[in-house]
Amino acid sequence: MYGGGVSRDLNDLIDRIVRDTKRAVERRRKAKIPERRSNILSLSNAIKGGDKSIIAEIKPKSPTNGALIGIRDVSSIASEYAEGGAVAISVLTSPHFGGKVENVSIVKGGAGVPVLYKDFVLDEYQVREGYGSGADAVLLIEGISPVEKLLDVVADLGLEAVVECHSAEEIEEAVNAGAEIIGINNRNLRTLAVDIETTARLAEYVPEDRIMISESGVKTAADAQYLFDCGADALLIGTALMRSENPKEFIRACLN
Question: What's the predicted TM-score (pTM) here?
């Protein structure tokens, strides 16, 4: 059981990250949350603004694939993403992915698009921390995050939440909790296997009045087109962009 969420059999790596996150949050509670100094941009409006939308992710490293960022800095990556046509930028803040909360402020300060705070969010403190750092939306994970409780906190702050799911049951739970944006994670958190057919299989369970984001697994523009054809309103792409020699062109190819 994590943070009031529903327990499930997690991969050992994910389980360790969750435990480390709980300890890190307890340490950070002593620090004052920064005062927000930026306007809130709507992630849902950004996605609805076009037929196809890309949320580009800044993931400095992967626990399974190693370093991804090279010598590039977060600010320049964010600018490239926005110039390529990304409607929003996801910022991984977990140290396990080479992230830090300060990167949210850096991206928010220059990208000009909504910023998604992405971590294993277990506690209200993290939502408020994301808000203070300039995030416009927060990722919550069914089975790990206390989704219903944190959706109320998100709404009180004027933010939006992407609720990540990996099964029809989790989608139903998210919808019943009031989630407006559903993320279908193509990565299985028990096995870490990635299969974009997960979106194809689960798309029918997402109500038409909700926004559907397909997360993980896009390696080519053809993958992107397939997921859009499956009904995804937006795609969250991380590793492929971080590895790309030309992220702007990769985003444009996925959108075209």
Answer: 0.93
Task: Please report, for the chain, how many H helices and E strands are present, in that order.
Answer: 11, 10
Could you give the CA distance from residue 114 to residue 118 in angstroms, rounded to a whole number? 13
What CA–CA distance (Å, rounded) separates 87 from 15? Answer: 31
Domain hosting 208: range is 12-29+40-255
CATH number at residue 164: 3.20.20.70
pLDDT in tens, the chain (256 residues): 344 443 455 578 888 999 999 999 999 988 889 899 999 999 999 999 989 999 999 998 776 666 676 657 899 999 999 999 999 999 999 988 888 999 999 999 988 999 999 999 999 999 999 999 999 999 999 999 999 999 999 999 999 999 999 999 999 999 999 999 999 999 988 888 999 999 999 999 999 999 999 999 999 999 999 999 999 999 999 999 999 999 999 999 999 9
Q: Do the domain assignments include residue 68?
A: yes
The residue type found at 154 is: V
